[in-house]
Specification:
Blueprint: H1 2-9, H2 26-36, H3 47-63, H4 67-80, H5 85-97, H6 101-117, H7 120-138, H8 147-156, H9 165-185, H10 190-209, H11 214-230, H12 236-239, H13 251-261, H14 266-278, H15 282-295, H16 299-314, H17 322-338, H18 342-354, H19 358-370, H20 379-392, H21 396-424, E1 451-452, E2 481-486, H22 492-506, E3 510-511, H23 513-516, H24 523-532, E4 534-541, H25 549-562, E5 570-574, E6 590-591, E7 597-598, H26 599-608
Helix pairs in contact: 1-5, 2-3, 3-4, 3-7, 4-5, 5-6, 7-8, 8-9, 9-10, 9-11, 9-21, 10-11, 11-13, 11-14, 14-15, 14-16, 15-16, 16-17, 17-18, 18-19, 18-20, 19-20, 20-21, 24-25
Length: 616
């Protein structure tokens, strides 16, 4: 079995072998089947989404012990997309587990042939499929394990001209939107929120600009508007000065663009309708949400019609119209029939509180805090509502307890937002190795005369114009480290080899995040402390580092530290060509050539890192 599995998994794998899908409960599987069983997609319009939905349907039927139907679903998919990597893998696994070894070998041979072709379209579809499936099961949780797979699909397809790229780019934008929402709820820093807003907006703008499927274009306009709504101070002019096509647009302008492109699209209708409630355009919100419900009785539309009715009650005067509360109660119950999420339990509890049924309200709040699906909602709100309800019931002690829980949850949300921000803003905690593969960058791995090969363990040749590096004064007595190294996590594999080579050959001690940061310490604190403790700061410049928020943080603190010293302590190295950051325009820096240094530059770098010597 293990030999078969390693052949099948290879680089892509399949639904029946992916570790992310092994521990799903029957309840989760049943709920997922109720959501996707009737979903209809046309292959010629949305090929990647079609394949992902069909493979997901087959996976669900197999895990729900309906193997014959599952096998038919996978076979039907191959009739449409004969080289579908995931479907081939799933069928190979099913046949092996049934001891149908001849059929197993047939599918396995087809799978090996397809993987060996290294066809970018086929591979990108398989990575998109994996991302879509994992997202399906974690979309209501604060998890993003699917992100590397959708990024891999985009990376593989960068040279393709197929419109299918819009599907992958949109899904990546959607993930960044989810992250932005969670960071907003967690009150993340302005810098982190601005960076996420920029990246997500660029994704959606690319879908619109590349003439993708009309539905995706309309949804991209919708989410651009929602991103603006998340932070009212946002403008495209400030965040995306080069994207003039978006300048002058506010949230409503984006929503109008979406509705003009796809006036009958059920997802566009319900998404825009939900935002109209926030804008207090209640009549239009109801029209859009009910138009969506006439097409699809979705959880989202019921939930947001419930929020609309709740908002109408709260805006209808001091006494309010109880009819709105009754309608809201029905809508939240309809939503909970379709999906159990924290937000619906909490909002239903609040409606019951307003209706005077306090015990029922407490029961709903209790259900809410037990529910792990708390994405897109601040759970601290539930505890505050609970406390208010208990106080009205004369339960002062319980109210104080829930108020304390609210504070704990708020703090946890802020810490969670910090972790999410650090994970996605560039230090690579979520990197799966796809983005930083050395082979992406065509670095020279062979030794060349006159060059120092960073990818080799061999000792560098001596400089033709200087003495061996062994003559250098090795250590800086006033500092814990001789140098600190700043780099984007995309460049971390090269940077780690470079770092080791410097320590080994120049015989000095560096500071690198993987080894020298204090465990459990905040990243920002570790960076500032490490820079202060380092005699020199080596800055690795690349197209990725100049857009990396943490690299900018390191550079800014390195330059601030340099102003306190009476010698040059910042040494910039351009690993890959890019626009030179303004801070380095007047500085002399070393340029790598295909990931290698000239011998002279290597000698010059070593000399620049020695005690009391400036880099020149």
């Amino acid at each position: 079995m293990e030999m078969m599995r390693s052949d099948i998994i290879g680089e892509q794998g399949c639904h029946l072998t992916w570790p992310e899908l092994r521990h799903l409960t029957k309840q989760e599987l049943d709920l997922s089947w109720s959501v996707v069983k009737g979903r209809k997609v046309v292959f010629t319009e949305l090929p990647s989404y079609y394949c992902a939905i069909v493979n997901l349907q087959g996976f669900l039927r197999y895990r729900l012990e309906d193997e014959a139907v599952a096998e038919d679903i996978f076979r039907d998919l191959l009739a449409v997309d004969a080289r579908n990597i995931c479907a081939l893998g799933n069928l190979a696994v099913i046949c092996y587990r049934d001891s149908r070894f001849a059929e197993h070998e047939e599918y396995l041979d087809r799978l090996r042939t397809e993987i060996a072709r290294r066809d970018p379209l086929s591979r990108a579809r398989s990575y998109y499929d994996r991302a879509h499936t994992i997202r399906h099961f974690e979309q209501d949780k604060r998890k993003f394990t699917y992100i590397p797979y959708i990024k891999k699909a985009i990376e593989i397809s960068k040279n393709l001209t197929d419109r299918e790229k819009s599907e992958w780019r949109f899904d990546y934008g959607l993930a960044l939107y989810r992250k932005d929402t969670q960071l907003t709820v967690g009150k993340a820093s302005v810098a982190i929120l601005e960076s996420g807003f920029r990246d997500a907006s660029l994704c959606f703008h690319e879908v619109i600009s590349n003439d993708g499927p009309v539905g995706y274009q309309a949804l991209s306009w919708t989410f651009l508007g929602i991103l603006l709504q998340n932070q009212p101070s946002r403008t495209f002019e400030v965040t995306l000065p080069a994207v003039t096509a978006l300048h002058g647009l506010n949230a409503v302008g984006c929503f109008e663009q979406a509705l003009e492109l796809a006036p009958l699209h059920p997802i566009v209708l319900r998404r825009v309708g939900s935002e109209m409630t926030k804008l207090k355009q209640f009549d239009r919100a109801r029209t859009l949400l009910e138009a969506s419900l006439r097409q699809e009785q979705s959880w989202f539309a019921y939930r947001h019609r419930g929020l609309l009715n709740l908002s109408l009650y709260e805006h209808s005067g001091s006494k309010g119209d109880i009819g709105y509360l009754k309608e809201a109660e029905k809508d939240f119950k309809e939503a909970l029939e379709r999906k159990k999420v924290h937000a619906d339990y909490s909002d239903l509890g609040y409606v019951m509180y307003l209706l005077g049924n306090r015990r029922a309200a407490v029961n709903q709040y209790s259900c809410a805090v037990k529910c792990p699906r708390d994405d897109f909602f601040n759970p601290a709100v539930t505890h505050r509502r609970w406390a208010r309800c208990l106080r009205d019931m004369g339960e002062a002690k319980g109210a104080r307890f829930q108020e304390e829980k609210s504070k704990e949850v708020e703090q946890a949300l802020m810490q969670g937002a910090k972790r999410i921000g650090e994970k996605f803003i560039g230090h690579g905690a979520g990197c799966q190795g796809f983005e930083c593969d050395l082979e992406r960058f065509n670095y020279f791995s062979e030794d060349r005369r006159g060059f120092v090969n960073i990818l080799s363990e061999e000792q560098h040749p001596l400089s033709p114009i200087g003495d061996p590096l062994s003559f250098l004064t090795k250590r800086h007595a006033d500092y814990k480290y001789d140098f600190f190294i700043s780099f984007s996590h995309i460049d971390h594999k090269w940077a780690l080899l470079f770092f080791r080579k410097l320590e080994r050959e120049v015989e000095i001690r560096g500071c690198i995040r993987y080894r020298d940061y204090e465990c459990g310490g905040a990243i920002s604190t570790n960076i500032m402390s490490s820079i202060r403790k380092s005699a020199k700061i080596v800055i690795i410049i690349s197209p990725d580092s100049v857009t990396d928020q943490w690299c900018r943080f390191e550079v800014n603190h390195a330059l601030a530290e340099s102003l306190k010293r009476d010698y040059v302590c910042v040494i910039p190295i351009m690993l890959r060509p890019c626009n030179i950051p303004a801070q380095f325009e007047l500085m002399t820096f070393i340029k790598c050539q295909d990931g290698q240094f000239t011998v002279d530059d290597w000698y010059r770098l070593g000399k620049g890192l020695q005690k009391g010597t400036n880099a020149t």
